[in-house]
Structure formats: C-alpha cells, structure tokens
Design brief:
- The protein is built from 9 helices and 10 strands.
- By secondary structure, it is an alpha+beta fold.
- The strands form 3 sheets. The protein has a 5-stranded antiparallel sheet with strand order 1-8-3-10-2. A 3-stranded antiparallel sheet has the order 7-4-9, with no helix packed on it.
- The chain binds 2-oxoglutaric acid and fe (ii) ion.
- The site of fe (ii) ion (FE2) has 3 residues, from loops.
- 2-oxoglutaric acid binds next to β3, β9 and β10.
Length: 293
C-alpha cells in the first residue's frame, strides 16, 4: 500500500527515522541554548541534562504570581528558530505533504500554506494545557484538506512515561464531528469533542512511541489527543499544519477570522459569546479567569 492509500485508509502515516539527524541536532542545540539563557537569568544551576530541569524549574517560577514568565518567551522564541522553520519546510517532507493534502493532484509545482508551526513544551505532571479529543479541522483554514505534523525532539515520547500522541484509527470516515467549547480548568478553555460523544465511537485507539527523527502526519478529520506527561522528562514536540489553498471551496481567512469562525460553529457557541468575543487571535487569551462562563 502506498503512503496516500494508507493515509486515506487510516487517517495517518508514521514516518520512522525520517528527519535529517544533523538538522535535528542543530535545532535541539538552539532550543537548549535558549533554555540555558533563561536558566542563567534565574540563577538556576546548569547540570548535564539541564534542559529538562530548566523547564521544570522555570515552569514552577511562572506559576508564582508576579514572576516573569520565561516559558512563554521560550515558546514564542523557539517557534521562530530558522532551524525549526527548516525542518518543517524540508523538501522531502513537503513532497509527501503535497501528496497527502491533494496539491500534487492539482499542480505538482504548487506548494502548501504553512498555517501553523510551533514547538510544544509539556513539563511533567502539569495538565494545565492538556488537550481533549479533537480534530484539527476546527483549528485551521476551512476547506483546505489540512495535514497535521507531530514529531518529538530532544526526548522520545512514550505513553507510560512523558505521554505521546494517540488517535482513533479510521475516524476520518466519520467526517467532521461537532466540537464543544469546554472549560478544562481555571486557566484553560479548549474546543473539543465531549467525552459522551467519543464514547459512542466504536473504533480502535492507537498510540505511537516516537523518537526524535520520527514524524506522524495525520488528516484534519482524524480524532486525536495526547496522553498526559506523567514521566520525569519534558515532552518537546514539533507541530505544524499544512493546508491546500487550491481547492474549489477554499476561502482565505486571516488568523483572527479563522479563530472566530471555528469558535462560532461549536455546539455551545451561543452560551459562550463572552469567551468568543474575548478572543482576538490565535492563542489570544492568556487569562481565562476573567471571562465569565
Ligand atoms: O501535543 C499535544 O499535546 C497536542 C498536539 C495536537 O493536538 C496536535 O498536534 O494536533
Ligand atoms: Fe491537534
């Protein structure tokens, strides 16, 4: 079975040992240097595996009121590293993405639109930003047959340790499943499929043990989430979203429009207009506490 067939059948493909080792190493060094910079600023001791300990300690500091949030700055800095942009724009990778999102079938010289690219940092035993089951079509350009990339760096990812990606196999056959606005905790609200609706889906769940260099590419309608990080190491993951802007019904929207568009079409949008109006752009609300339910 070729990659496209496998993708259309299961909703995802896993590419083992796919990314260039030296490019990963350059990115990892750049990230570690950024973490080290903030550790030194905070007078934290630099040990051998300082990057894990650094994130854990800086995450504790961020939770103390009125303390400078280095994690937020690290997040925003490392997503713009040229070493990261290079990996998500890698020729070999884009060639496959073009096949999966249907660009090759339209024009082999055309290329996808990178809607999103960032590096997620999940410290151990902190479930503040844990996402529930969802489909990426609620977070990307509408009608763009988007492909999502998820790939670990620095540390490998395993279900029982620092958690990893899990998907509902073949759930793309269900098409888009309605999402709700779900208040997860004091600090976080997300759009996701409520547990009750997930329970009714009779398809197998699979998860992937991944090493740096491995990549999972999945369809915008594949239902997925990650397991909590219950290990001792930080989970660092590259996330990118590629869309096909050449489809018949594709309509370009800017970031703000996309965010509002999807929130407004959730099942319980009407009861959550305060929250929706407070959102101005991607990742736009920092303090959910001030928003009324
Ligand atoms: O890494 C995570 O926790 C969430 C990832 C995710 O939902 C995605 O990559 O689409
Ligand atoms: Fe996702």
């Amino acid at each position: 079975m070729d990659l496209l067939q496998e993708y259309n059948e299961n909703g995802f493909v896993v590419l083992k040992d796919f990314l260039d080792k030296s490019k990963i190493e350059s990115l990892e060094n750049a990230i570690k240097s950024n973490i080290k910079f903030f550790m030194e600023k905070n007078n934290l001791k630099i040990t051998e595996n300082f990057h894990d300990e650094g994130i854990i300690q800086l995450n504790k500091i961020r939770k103390q009121k009125n303390q400078f949030d280095s994690i937020q700055v690290i997040y925003n800095t490392i997503r713009k590293l040229p070493e990261f942009q290079q990996i998500i724009s890698d020729e070999k990778l884009i060639k496959i993405v073009k096949e999966l999102c249907g660009i090759n079938q339209i024009n082999k010289n055309a290329s996808p639109y990178i809607w999103e690219g960032f590096i997620r940092i999940d410290p151990p035993k902190d479930n503040t930003y844990e996402l529930k089951w969802h489909q990426e079509s609620y977070f990307t350009l509408p009608n763009s047959n988007a492909v999502q990339l998820w790939a670990p760096i620095i540390n490998e990812t395993k279900k029982e340790e620092n958690g990893t990606m899990t998907v509902i196999e073949k759930s793309i056959k269900l098409g888009e499943v309605p999402h709700h606005i779900v208040r997860q905790n004091e600090n976080y609200i997300s759009e996701s499929i409520i547990d009750e609706n997930v329970k009714n889906i009779n398809l197998p769940k699979v998860n992937f043990s991944m090493k740096p260099g491995d990549v999972i590419l999945f369809h915008q309608h594949l239902i997925h989430k990650t397991f909590a990080n219950n290990g001792s190491k930080v989970r660092f993951t590259m996330v990118a979203n590629y869309s096909n802007p050449y489809l018949e019904d594709f309509k370009f929207m800017n970031e703000e429009e996309v965010v509002i568009f999807h929130k407004k079409r959730t099942v319980n949008a009407e009861e959550n207009m305060d929250y929706i109006n407070a959102f101005s752009k991607k990742g736009g609300v920092k303090d959910f506490k001030t928003i009324a339910n």
